[in-house]
Specification:
The chain is an alpha/beta fold. It contains 7 helices and 12 strands. The N and C termini lie far apart (63 Å).
């Protein structure tokens, strides 16, 4: 029996899932998430599925703080931290260590792109294009960083600076098993965000080739050296934006004030690049 063809107007089934993680961050961190969601929606539209995993804050409060986003975005409470990781967390989990692993994968049957909430894209980096378009292009995607920052996993990460603000996994890849295998080989707790990043970078590099989103494409963007003050061609990762207060000075000025000025200077351009009207000040 011949099966009927789908309607000509039917959208193709998405082969990509895109996820974000958000906790109790600063107001600008939530604004960055809104811009990130709209920017990625403009790039992929119905070709992807979208989800935000929420921790440490009531879900309704997160929706209020984030503001209007594309209807396609699903919101989930954080859950499913693997036992292999739960037993390895430092008691002071204040830095948000391991929230990106709760759950480790949200779209296991799809290629999965994980983005930090403060990373805003308005064009597709070449590494992401190749990862999606060419099965031989490499199984993973990571971002370039300005300096290596891998915590106690530095000996297993190699010399090249990498950042997990962008992390691409192929469909079917068992991230939990990859992380657990490395943790078995490297005893000790996860005590910082650097440990979390180093764990991911080392686990992926052990498992296969990684394509890299360059700093020229997506800058690690802040006013503090060695970060880049300017936007990249395809996006910008506004590191430090989630913090409500930065407890040090920069060139004899409060770092929190310097960080705020940097964001405000780029803010109108960011809204334009993701296709939104900037709200009135």
């Amino acid at each position: 029996m011949r099966m009927p063809l789908p309607p000509a107007s039917a959208a193709p089934r998405p082969s990509l899932g895109i996820r974000w993680t958000i906790g109790d961050v600063s107001p600008r961190g939530f604004e960055a998430l809104r811009l990130s969601l709209w920017g990625v929606w403009r790039l992929f539209a119905e070709a992807a599925r979208y989800a935000v995993v929420v921790n440490s804050v009531d879900l309704e409060e997160v929706l209020r703080r984030t503001g209007p986003v594309p209807d396609a975005v699903a919101w989930h409470p954080a859950h499913g931290l693997p036992a292999a990781l739960a037993g390895r967390l430092d008691a002071g989990m204040a830095e948000g260590v391991a929230w990106k692993f709760a759950p480790p994968r949200l779209f296991p049957e799809l290629a999965e792109l994980s983005l930090d909430n403060d990373l805003i894209l308005w064009d597709r980096p070449e590494a992401v294009r190749a990862w999606l378009d060419d099965p031989a292009g490499g199984p993973f995607v990571l971002a370039e960083d300005v300096v290596p920052a891998f915590g106690r996993f530095a000996p297993w990460c190699g010399p090249e600076p990498r950042n997990t603000g962008i992390r691409g996994l192929p469909a079917g890849f068992d991230l939990t098993a990859a992380l657990a295998s490395l943790l078995d080989a490297v005893p000790g707790p996860l005590a910082s965000e650097l440990d979390e990043q180093g764990l991911q970078v080392a686990a992926l590099q052990r498992a296969g080739a990684c394509r890299t989103v360059t700093l020229d494409e997506v800058s690690v963007c802040s006013p503090f050296w060695p970060h880049r003050a300017e936007l990249g061609r395809c996006g910008a990762h506004f590191v430090g934006l989630n913090a409500r207060h930065i407890p040090w000075s920069y060139h004899d000025r409060p770092a929190t004030e310097v960080r705020s000025e940097h964001w405000e200077a780029h803010r109108p351009t960011l809204y334009r690049l993701v296709g939104l009207d900037a709200p009135a000040v």
